[in-house]
Structure formats: C-alpha cells, structure tokens
Amino acid sequence: MRKRAKKRTENYKKHVGQIPGTLVYTGKKSDKKLHIESFDYNKEHVEETVLLNIADAIPFKDTDSVTWININGLQYTKEIESIGNQYGLHPLVLEDIVNTAQRPKIDEYDDYLFVVLKMLYYDKDENIVIEQVSFVLGKNYVISFQESEGDVFDIIRERLRLGNGRIRGLKSDYLLYALIDAVVDNYFSIIETLGNKIEDLETELFAGTAREGVNIEIQQLKREILKVRRAIFPLREIISRIEKGEHPLIYKRTITYYRDVYDHLIQVSENIDIYREMIWSLMDMYMTTISNKMNEVMKVLTIMSTIFIPLTFLAGLYGMNFKHIPELNYHNGYFVLLGVMLVMFIALLFYFKRKKWL
Predict the structure, then answer these.
(1) E strands of 169-218, at which residues?
(2) How many angstroms separate the CA atoms of 26 and 48, rounded?
(3) pLDDT number for residue 19
(4) Rounded to two decimals, what is the model's pTM?
(5) What is the pLDDT of residue 9?
(6) Is the distance from CB of 79 to CB of 99 less than 8 angstroms?
(7) What DSSP assignment string belongs to 236-253?
(8) Is the CB of residue 184 less than 8 Å from the CB of residue 265?
(9) Do 71 and 143 contact (CB within 8 A), yes or no?
(10) Residue 349's pLDDT is what?
(11) Which structural domains are found in the chain, ordered by start?
(12) pLDDT digits (tens, 9 = 90+) for 242-274
C-alpha cells in the first residue's frame, strides 16, 4: 500500500511547479514504441496506412475525405506536441493528453472538440486495466491518443475496411460516436464479469463453502467496482453535452446515435450501483457467516460444559477426604454412582435434543 501511495505521489510531483501547458507523461508504459495508423476514407474508398513518423499525419488535416489518425505512445511528448501545433491544439489540451490521471471530460473549442475517457478491459490474469484514451474531433478528422497498442477498436477498423454500416458515408462526428460506442460497449463485458464474480462469491457464502481468504476477494472486488464507477460515471456528462448539439461539428443527424450511447451508459451505471450494493451485502454476509460459525462452536462448548457440570459435582462430592460419608461403605456404591452419572448424561442429551439445541 505504501509503495502504491509513493508512486501516486511521484506522479503528482511531476506537475508541481511546471508551466501550464508543459507536456509531462505520467503513465507507466514508457517502454512502448510509437505507432501511428491512419484510415482516410469516403463513401467509395478507404486507405489504411501505418505512418512512419508524425509528420506524415499533417497532410490529412485539409483533405476532403474523413481521416482517423490513431497514435499509440503517449510518452513521445515531442511528437505529440508537433502534431498538436500542426492541428492548432491548445497547449492545455496536449498537457491533458499525456496526463494519464486525467478525469474523463470534454472541452469545446471553436474548430475542434477534445474528449477524454477511460477504456477498460481485463488482462490475462483477470486484473482490470484502465487506459486513458483522448479524442480530438475536427471538421474532417478524428485523432485518438492511446498509451500503447491494443484496444477495443478492431470492430471499427473492420467496418471501415469493409464499408459496413453508414460509417463511411457520414462525417467525422459519426466516427467519434462509433469510437466512443465501442468503448462503452466493452463496458458491458466488464460489468458482466464483475457480476459473475459477485454471484460466485454469493453462492459460496450461502452454501457455507467459502474458501479461506474470501474476505480479501470481496475487498478486491469492491475496489474494482469503485475504479469502474470512477471511470464510467463522468462519461454521462460528456455525452449529455455532446447530444445537446450546440457545437457546429456535431450534426443533427448524429444526435440520435449519441443519445443511444447515453442510454447504454445509464444502463451500465445502474448495474454498477446494483453491484456496489451487492458487494457491501457480501461483506455483511461474510461477517454474519463468521459470527454464525463462532456461535456454533460456542453452543457445542456450552452444551458440553452443561453436561459435565453435574457429573463433575458428583465426582467432586464423593472425592472429598471425609471418613463418614455414608455411601462410601456401600458394596456397589461405585457402580451406582456411575449409573446415576450415565442416567444424568442421557437425560441431558435427550433434553437438549428435544429443545433442538443439538
């Protein structure tokens, strides 16, 4: 925990004392290579290209076709600053692009929109990964910025290649919608996985077969849900502002599609709230299970003590070193005492059984 807190503190310190607009990469993927791809298309054709350097992306600014430029590698701040200068992006926009701790938001400028959101997915170890994705929407282009290769946009690439749907027949605002929609659709898989984990733990706790350390799993799930909630909830405000259609880059015909994304976000948000309540209930259920197990142990010990108290009393009574105890002179006194003890033992067991304490 201290090591994580130290890492967060170091990331915040990178911005202390810096001039506003200074590009400081705060992520952890500094070993990744710069990868730039572009899709330049219209209704009739599409040209997919892997760009060798950032300068190759400059000519797409003034084309009549629509262009999607996808840049992977936020640690290459000089290259990002270069394309920002060529496309007229504000220095604060460039600063937010490389600041991976940025909260999801939307900034409106005269000739472009800047959108930041979080892309969620599970890695091979079933750990949730939160990666920042930034979009710049221009008149005929969308520029996306990611930390590294690997995303949820393969379905968009395939639609562009094959010309499926209406994506190649509409403007860049529809392209932005399609990219955001791909991110939001992937949220459903995240929510489904979280739901399955919660249901599995709930079944274990109800069946009384919970493994050792299940409380740690519950705490980890709770942290995952809080992370997902923090990443998803601000996106509703972003889509709400877009669907108002006040910016000239957002055409009326695409407003309906953004409303559909908003509906999906509402559904995801409701599921998150439900699972958040369920995870709190799981912790209460776990504590109740532990308490019940302790009560069962205490009940058994109490019954055993209750049974042996009278037997101990008789054994102690006739174990006293007095000479004139009348029963000591009986020829079969020992066997009579054992018989009395046995009868008392059976009678107490029968009584506890009848009371359903056993």
Answers:
(1) none
(2) 31
(3) 64
(4) 0.78
(5) 52
(6) no
(7) HHHHHHHHTT-STTS-HH
(8) yes
(9) yes
(10) 87
(11) 17-288 (3.30.460.20), 299-354 (1.20.58.340)
(12) 888 778 899 888 999 999 999 999 999 999 999
